[in-house]
Every structure is written in structure tokens, then in C-alpha cells.
């Protein structure tokens, strides 16, 4: 049966079959080709979407805006302070109002239950643009990037995620690797491990797909023969600033350095969802350098800037993949 995602929300990758994910990857590649060749693709003319952001963003917001405009849609952006949602109006009431105006809703916020409630009550497709728990739109961009670099197939690749294993990226990459049959290795400190229930779910998925999920706190063993090395920031949006001191202490051994990359396969790539603290050219980076004497955090600048780094291809792929997700669910 052909894949049909029309009318479906995109809240967690766990809700999608391997076949549906493969379909979104194929569609993303098609949209990338259309964009690259300058071929118009205003397939959703006359529709309108709203972007609700409780947290800040560069890539996700721009990908939804440009994606929607390329597809011929109208877009409204509501920033963290400019709607009634949360303070004066419940999620449920907001959903019931926005569902009358718009054909689709993007939500970036804190609680996974909020994006789920929006989907349940609005009656239109809702896309999760990041919650504390998951970042599912990032997954299609990331797996597209992996596919582009390993064109003979991504099943069986060793994919290592370094850092805070229980954040939205750690959780989501573990799910994505499991669904697509990669060998996911989480490498981080013992007290930043993902929730046991999610790990069990992923291991069950792996029984079907041939992938695997393992954990270690030994960075050298993790990096050995890896095909993809991935990391994310050490303190995520919504977490208190005071955590920096503790996180630097516990996550410094898991920084992706040149020595770590040298242990990986010779064709290994480096990935990061961005934004990244790889230098001191940000206010937080500058502040951390002053307070703790640390000038690069989750990744060494020389790795971020190296030939193995695919971070900007990955960022570009957010646009193509988010366009694919919107098109598949709104067509
Ligand atoms: N990777 C990502 O989601 O980036 P933004 O926070 O800029 O949207
Ligand atoms: N873990 C990060 C991901 C940013 C795209 C955060 O939630 O801030």
C-alpha cells in the first residue's frame, strides 16, 4: 500500500513506521532537488500555517517559514511572548481557536504533553518543532544527511552520540537509529542516561530492523570505527543556567576532539543539530570562558571546522525535510 500521511500530526518519530520514515526521506530528497534546480513547487497554495514558539530558534523557524512560502502557503509566527497561550488561555482553547484559522500548526515548547494536546484538540496536523523530550523534525534532516554521505545504505552504520544522553536529541537519535537499523551508541555520564522505558522500546524496534542500542562511558571505545559521531550542547533550552558548572565538569570527558575523530572510521562524519558552543563567539561562550576557562565545549573548534564536519549540510536539510513533512501531512 502506498504511504499516506495526509492529515496526520508529526509529534514523535516513534509514531511512524520505518516505511513512513523512508517515504519522508525520499520526499525530502525530491524537495531538495526541486529547490536546487529552481523548480517551483507551490503545491499547497491557499493553505495557511501558524508557528508557535515558546523557546527561541533559528533553523526550525526559518525552515518552516521558507518551506511554507516555497509551497505557496501563508505563515504566521507567534514568538514566546506574543500570544495568549499559557498565561491567559489554555493550550486546549488555543488549539480550538487556531484549528479554525489554520491548516497546520508548528509548536516548539517544553512539555511533550502540550504538543500532543494541541494535536488532539485543534483538529489539524501539528508538527513538533522540539520539546524537552523529542526533536522529531530534526531526525529527517539528520538521516537525510547520513544517507547523502553513505549512499550505498545506512543500515548497520555505527552512530555514536556523545553527551547528555537523556536530552531531546539523545532520545530522538536513539529512536531514529533504531527505526532505520543503525547501531546507536550513547556515550555519556552515568547520571545523564535516557529513561529505561524508552530504551526498552527502542531495543524492541531493533529486533525488527537489525539495529542496536548500547551505552558506554568510555569515549575511546565508543568512537572506535564509528561512521557517524554526533553531539549536542550540554545545557538545553529551558534548563537553568546554574547547571553549566556541573555539566562542564561531568561532560568535559565526552567532548568530541580530534583524537576522538581519529579513532573513528576513516570516512566518518561529524554532525551536530546546532547551535554549537565550539568557540567563544557567543555571549554564553564568552561568559563560560571567563567563569570556567573553557573555550570550546561539546566539540573542539578544529573538529567543527574540519572536512569531516557536515553541520551546515545538516542545517540546510532542515528546510527540505520540514517542507516534506508539511507537504506529506497537508496534501
Ligand atoms: N537545530 C535546531 O533546532 O536549531 P534551532 O534551535 O535554531 O531551531
Ligand atoms: N538539546 C538542544 C537542542 C537544540 C536544537 C536544546 O533543547 O536546546
Give a nutshell description of this structure:
The chain is built from 13 helices and 9 strands. It is α/β, with parallel strands linked by helices and 331 residues long. The two termini are 17 Å apart.
General description of the model:
This protein is α/β, with parallel strands linked by helices and 331 residues long. Helices cover 45% and strands 13% of the residues. A 5-stranded parallel β-sheet has the order 7-6-5-8-9. The protein has a 4-stranded parallel β-sheet with strand order 2-1-3-4, sandwiched between helices. Strand 5, helix 6 (168-180) and strand 6 (183-187) form a beta-alpha-beta unit. The chain is globular. The two termini are 17 Å apart. It binds phosphoric acid mono(formamide)ester and norvaline. Phosphoric acid mono(formamide)ester is lined by residues 57-60, 130, 138, 273-274. Phosphoric acid mono(formamide)ester binds at residues 57-60, 130, 138, 273-274.
Distinct small-molecule ligands in the complex:
phosphoric acid mono(formamide)ester, norvaline
Largest sheet: 5 strands, parallel
What is the helix fraction of residues, given as a range?
Answer: 40-55%
> What value does the Rg take, in angstroms?
19 Å
Strand order of the largest sheet: 7-6-5-8-9
Task: Estimate the strand proportion.
Answer: 5-15%
Helix count equals 13
Mean pLDDT: 97
Distance between the termini: 17 Å
- Residue windows where pLDDT falls under 50 for at least 5 positions: none
Element-level helix/strand string: HEHEHEHEHEHEHEHEHHEHHH
Question: What is the 3D form?
Answer: globular
Task: Give a count of the beta strands, DSSP E runs of length 2 or more.
Answer: 9
Computed structural class? alpha/beta
Amino acid at each position: 500500500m502506498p504511504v499516506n500521511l495526509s492529515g496526520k500530526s508529526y509529534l514523535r518519530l516513534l509514531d511512524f513506521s520505518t516505511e513512513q520514515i523512508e517515504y519522508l526521506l525520499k520526499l525530502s530528497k525530491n524537495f531538495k532537488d526541486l529547490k536546487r534546480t529552481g523548480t517551483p513547487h507551490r503545491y499547497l497554495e491557499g493553505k495557511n500555517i501558524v508557528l508557535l514558539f515558546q523557546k527561541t530558534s533559528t533553523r526550525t523557524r526559518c525552515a518552516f517559514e521558507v518551506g511554507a512560502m516555497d509551497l505557496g502557503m501563508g505563515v504566521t509566527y507567534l514568538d514566546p511572548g506574543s500570544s495568549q497561550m499559557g498565561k491567559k488561555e489554555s493550550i486546549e482553547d488555543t488549539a480550538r481557536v487556531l484549528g479554525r484559522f489554520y491548516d497546520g500548526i508548528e509548536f516548539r515548547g517544553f512539555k511533550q504533553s502540550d504538543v500532543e494536546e494541541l494535536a488532539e484538540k485543534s483538529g489539524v496536523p501539528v508538527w513538533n518543532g522540539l520539546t524537552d523530550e523529542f526533536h522529531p523534525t530534526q531526525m529527517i534532516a539528520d538521516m537525510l544527511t547520513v544517507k547523502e554521505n553513505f549512499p550505498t545504505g545506512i543500515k548497520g552504520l555505527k552512530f555514536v552520540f556523545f553527551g547528555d544522553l537523556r536530552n531531546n536529541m539523545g532520545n530522538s537519535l536513539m529512536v531514529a537509529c533504531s527505526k532505520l537499523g543503525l547501531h546507536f551508541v550513547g556515550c555519556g555520564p552515568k547520571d545523564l542516561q535516557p529513561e529505561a522505558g524508552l530504551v526498552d522500546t527502542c531495543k524492541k524496534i531493533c529486533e525488527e530492523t537489525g539495529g542496536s542500542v548500547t551505552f558506554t562511558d568510555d569515549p575511546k571505545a565508543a568512537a572506535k570505527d564509528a561512521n557517524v559521531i554526533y553531539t549536542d550542547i550540554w545545557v538545553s533550552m529551558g534548563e537553568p543556567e546554574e547547571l553549566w558548572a556541573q555539566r562542564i565538569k561531568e561532560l568535559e570527558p565526552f567532548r568530541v576532539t580530534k583524537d576522538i575523530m581519529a579513532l573513528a572510521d576513516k570516512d566518518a562524519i561529524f554532525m551536530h543539530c546546532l547551535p554549537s558552543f565550539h568557540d567563544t563567539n557567543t555571549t554564553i561562550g564568552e561568559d563560560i570562558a571567563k567563569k570556567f576557562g573553557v573555550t570550546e565545549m561539546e566539540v573542539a573548534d578544529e573538529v567543527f571546522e574540519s572536512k569531516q564536519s557536515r553541520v551546515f549540510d545538516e542545517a540546510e536539510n532542515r528546510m527540505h525535510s520540514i517542507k516534506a513533512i508539511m507537504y506529506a501531512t497537508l496534501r
